[in-house]
Amino acid sequence: MNENTQILKDISDKLDVLLNKKPMPKLLYAKDIANNYKVNVSKATRLCKEYGTNFGGWCIEAEKFKEILQNEGKQLFDNLKE
Q1: Whole-prediction pTM value?
Q2: Where on the phi/psi map is residue 29: left (φ > 0), alpha (ψ -120 to 50), or beta?
């Protein structure tokens, strides 16, 4: 097997691994939360700081946000730490 064929085989193997992985979680950024839930960006950022991560900006996984919103209800944004 020549070098070019080996490189192509390696690329193909790596693509197969990537395609077979679970899909990446959808991230909601603080700005998106502020726009969609009528809270200010500061409160949305505090929510992401408390429950999410800083990944190119403060964000939270969509499923985690949905779970927190179902558990906390409307008081979610009022109960955030300062």
Answers
A1: 0.66
A2: beta
